[in-house]
Write a structure and sequence with these properties.
heterodimer, A: alpha/beta, 6-stranded mixed sheet, 12 strands, 37% helix, 21% strand, globular, B: 8-stranded parallel barrel, 8 strands
Chain lengths: 331, 379
């Protein structure tokens, strides 16, 4: 890292990698996307990156690591298997890795919850799209009251779930429920994902259910503190995912025997994509690329000892029209 | 009971010594010779109608009665399949693995089946069910999303389980797309693919066209086709007969129709109807009628019925298990259940999106409030 800037490589030129490239170009002044790497010479993503001036190759990570000037940071948007194989090689080369696959080589990271503890980690994992959308809210609740159980339901449009996600849907449920516990702070977590093919495509919609103590299920000071925490978290996430919002007010249900004597809070979240490259309904992709770019920006700023230069959408104004959804995608 | 005439085709030609095993395998209690297999889902789809409160005693009673009646496949799981016990779908009273274990214990000839929905349940859940004795894996996806089930069919086959694919809300896509998704499941390892009328929305020819398309697509590979009907528009049994006549050889039912929405095709009516038609199911009609009347009927809190809400589900194409959730939200937010269900249909929500019912109830409650304000002159 020199001259107050870091160079980045994006490994995996699919929808996620491409959207991430646009976000880094537009939103960060301290990360310069320099390389885009894939394995398919006919990839649209590689061609697009090349047009934007990146150095590209279809010869994978071998090519990347053979360059005279290695990147300071690599964003990996391939598969869990690929990242598991590549991670030790990045580490050996001293390259910071932000992992957008479910490989979870490094700690799960959700920017508003646990980035500050992990600023020096050599490798961080971005959980899943559903995790990025819901873990902040589980954490908002568990920071006020104990949460013995939290359950999240992520509904995404079929068009935004690519072949990788579909072939390994268990990875989504397992990784997300693990992060609901490890990062969200629930004693036990459960995650559910639903693909909906309706046209026009649905916006990404997530529900967070948390079991909470009976007194928090009734109106009062504790419930007010919970609401305050939930709304504060909504604003924090909006700093980097402007389309993130509660679709309705959180709903509290009083304690029931069937809930082991616990009360429940229901938090409905909608994520409208911000369309750096992908369409509005792909909020699930937007939230994970936005989180990854944000994490990269903050970790680089920390290493360089400079302030973050992140530009929010409000700073950028309207962006060009988004494309229609290409073939490859993933949540 | 029924037609006791012995027809020429009923008399087996024996040209070699028959082993005891073969005799047992063909005994009536084991189903005997049959033209189709009825899978009873009282203890799975019926779980919705029971708000997932089945007890071990009820499960033992139902399995034992079905097993005695010669039903060869009995499905036991939370209504939403393995792992369904949750805030979103309702918590089970008894851990489903305990219920599956009890069912396996009671069955002498019937196979115990489990349902799983990828995205909700994982391979780990399937392995646990297999470990306690489940031997049929029924793997369900929305009818256009079959490719999320590939890994699960592979694992189920590797475990040595019989595999069945379940294409939910089959009314919501075309026969061609349905057939393509059936192909995906068969390629992944499904031995049978069901056209699942989750909303009870298919009306006769709609069911027939879908069965025919799926049979044409996967039948040539030796894969079977099945039909799972609901009674919301009272078509469950009629559609099942049409399905058989168009090549389906596995048909789902539930005792006393105990299932989501207006309930399933009643197993006892299927057995009686097929017997009247001379179609062999291997089920003893007298035994299955007493299973419905004496075992299941007494513990049902409310018989599934075609009322305003469940008919709306059939009409608007809404996943049947949304019914009780809509009724609860209706009560909590003071809006009509059938209006919630109508909106669910309009918005195109699919199986598993029970959380959207709360969104819709809130939306309707807000509209109502604004309407009330307007009515009282407030602008």
């Amino acid at each position: 890292m020199s001259k107050g800037k870091a160079t980045a490589a994006i490994v995996g030129p699919g929808n996620i990698g491409t959207d991430l490239m646009f976000k880094l170009i537009r939103r960060s002044d301290i990360i310069e996307p320099r390389y885009m790497v894939g394995v398919d010479p006919t990839s649209d993503g590689l061609a697009r990156a090349k047009r934007l001036g990146l150095e590209v190759s279809a010869e994978g990570v071998d090519w990347l690591l053979a360059q005279d000037e290695l990147p300071d940071i690599v964003f990996e948007a391939t598969s869990a298997k690929a990242h598991s194989a590549n991670a030790p090689r990045y580490a050996e080369a001293g390259i910071l890795a932000v992992d957008l696959t479910p490989a979870a080589v490094g700690p799960y990271l959700c920017p508003p919850v646990n980035l500050s503890f992990n600023l020096d980690a050599p490798n961080v994992n971005m959980i899943t799209c559903g995790g990025q959308a819901t873990v902040p809210m589980v954490s908002a609740v568990s920071s006020v009251v104990p949460v013995p159980y939290a359950e999240i339901v992520a509904s995404v449009s079929s068009r935004s779930a690519g072949p990788g996600t579909r072939a390994n849907i268990d990875e989504f449920t397992e990784t997300t429920s693990n992060a609901v516990e490890a990062v969200g702070g629930a004693e036990r977590g459960k995650a559910i994902i639903i693909l909906n093919p309706v046209e026009p495509p649905l916006m990404m919609r997530n529900t967070v259910f948390c079991a909470i103590p009976p007194e928090a299920g009734e109106p009062g000071e504790l419930q007010d503190r919970l609401l305050e925490s939930i709304h504060a978290m909504e604003a924090t996430v909006q700093e980097y995912v402007p389309g993130y919002h509660l679709r309705a007010a959180p709903q509290f249900d009083p304690a029931r025997d069937a809930w082991r004597g616990q009360a429940r809070v229901f938090i409905p979240i909608e994520v409208k994509g911000r369309g750096d490259y992908l369409p509005d309904y792909a909020g699930n992709l937007d939230i994970i690329t936005a989180a990854a770019a944000r994490v990269g920006d903050l970790m680089v700023a920390h290493r360089l000892g400079v302030d973050t230069t992140w530009k929010s959408s409000a700073d950028l104004g309207d962006l060009p029209d988004t494309t229609t959804m290409p073939q490859e995608a993933g949540v | 009971m029924g037609d006791m005439t012995i027809r020429p085709e009923d008399v087996p030609v024996v040209d070699r010594e028959v082993t005891e095993t073969e005799v047992l395998a063909n005994a009536t209690a084991a189903g005997g010779e049959r033209d189709l297999r009825i899978t009873d889902s009282t203890l799975r789809d019926g779980s919705h109608a029971m708000s997932h409160q089945f007890t071990e005693e009820q499960v033992r009673g139902v399995v034992s009665a079905l097993d005695r009646a010669g039903v060869q496949a009995i499905e036991v799981t939370h209504g939403d399949g393995l792992g369904g016990s949750s805030f979103n779908y309702g918590f089970s009273l008894v851990d489903e693995l305990d219920l599956i274990r009890a069912a396996v214990d009671e069955a002498t000839q019937a196979k115990i089946a489990v349902l799983m929905l990828p995205g909700l349940a994982t391979v780990r859940d399937l392995k646990q069910a297999h470990a306690v004795g489940a031997s049929v894996a029924r793997i369900a996806t929305h009818c256009t999303e079959a490719d999320v089930s590939t890994q699960h069919f592979g694992e189920a086959r590797a475990l040595g389980m019989e595999t069945v694919g379940f294409l939910m809300l089959s009314h919501s896509t075309t026969p061609d797309v349905l057939a393509r998704n059936a192909r995906t499941m068969v390629d992944a390892g499904a031995e049978c693919v069901y056209v699942v009328d989750s909303a009870g929305a298919l009306i006769l020819s709609d069911a027939q066209e879908r069965i025919t398309a799926v049979v044409e697509e996967v039948g040539r590979d030796g894969a079977q086709v099945g039909f799972h009907g609901h009674q919301n528009l009272s078509m469950g049994v009629a559609n099942s007969v049409l399905a058989y006549q168009n090549g389906a050889v596995q048909i789902d039912g539930a005792l006393c129709a105990l299932g989501a929405g207006a309930g399933n095709s009643p197993t006892e009516v299927l057995a009686a109807t097929f017997e009247r038609m001379g179609i062999r199911t291997g089920i003893d009609l007298g035994e299955v009628l007493s299973a419905a009347e004496e075992v299941v009927r007494p513990f049902i809190p409310r018989l599934p019925w075609m009322d305003r809400s469940s008919i709306t589900q059939g009409y608007a194409g809404v996943y049947s298990s949304f019914l009780l959730h809509a009724e609860r939200a209706a009560e909590r937010y003071g809006v009509p259940a059938h209006e919630i269900l109508q909106k669910v249909g309009e918005y195109g929500y699919v199986g598993g999106q029970e959380d959207m019912i709360i969104d819709i109830a809130l939306e309707l409650a807000q509209e109502k409030e604004l309407g009330d304000l307007a009515g009282s002159g407030v602008r």
